[in-house]
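Narrative summary of target 7.
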Amino acid sequence: MVTRLNIAFAPGEGALVRMLGLVERRGFDVRGVSMADGSMMLDVEARDGSRRLDMLDLQLRRLVDVRDVRVAT
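Modeled conformation, tokenized:
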């Protein structure tokens, strides 16, 4: 199941790479990306059933450039 995340972040050197890398390392596949100034909509899908979206949310929030993460319903 594909889930959309809305991520507000401070655009800076390497910010996008850090976010995408974290998503992939946590066991999610990126299915789509849409960008605007200081925000990104990211469509992700878990590789298997053991991957939890709430944990990905918490991990993204820990990144220094990330201001807010919202799961679109």
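Residues 26 and 56 are 7 Å apart (CA to CA).
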